[in-house]
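Predict the 3D structure for this chain.
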Amino acid sequence: MQLNRLTERVWVYPFEEERDRPNLGYVRGDRWSLAVDAGHSAAHVREFYAALQAAGLPLPSLTVLTHWHWDHTFGMHAVHGLCLAGERTNRHLADFRSRPGAKQELLSAEERVRREYADGQPMIVTQADLTLNGEMRLETGGCSVRVFPAAAPHTDDSTLIYLPDEKVLFLGDAACGALPDWKKDPALCRRLADTIDRTGADIVLEGHWTPLSRQEQVRDLLSDAEQAEKGV
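Done. Predicted structure below.
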C-alpha cells in the first residue's frame, strides 16, 4: 500500500476493507507534522509509518482522532508522539477498556477485526494523551489545522479536522450510519451536511472511501436524509 498525495501538504494512507482499516491522513507542516487517526492495530501503524519513511516524510508529532471506534484508535499505543481526542472519545475508550469481555465480543462479532488480529498480536486499548473540549486551532507551520466536534449520524463523539489552507476536510466515519444497524438520523445528516458546506472545503475524505468534493459529500448526505425519512 502506498501513500496518495492529495495536496502540497496532505497525504493519505488508503483504506482497506478486508481488515476494516480506515484512511490515515498525514499533514506536513514546516515545523511539525500531524496524522489523522491512529489505525486499527500496531501492525497498521507500522505499515503507515513505513510508507511515510519511504516517501521521505517525518513521523507525526501529533495524531488526532476522529472518533473512538476500534479501527481508528486501537493502534494508538504504537503511534509516534502524542494523541489528541475529544473528551467523549476518551470516555468511550475508557468504557470499552473497563468492560469485561469487550474485546472478545468485538472479535466474535466482526470478521474483519479477526483478520486484523489473526497473527496473534494483542488488542491494546489506550486513551489519548490530550483531550479536546470544543474547537482547537493548531499551527504546524505553513498549514493551519482546525479540530472541532460535529453533530453526525455515526457517533456522538465525531471530531472533524479541517485544513483551511489546503481546503481538505477529514470526516472520519461521521457520514456513516449508527452501529449496529447503520441507520442514519435524517436530522443529523442535514446538520452534518450544513457543517461540511460551511467549511468551504474542496476535498472531503471519509474514513473508508475515496476523496469526494464538498458538493458530492453534501449531496450524498442530503439524499441519505431523504431516504431515511421515506424509510428506504
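The chain is about 30% helix and 20% strand.
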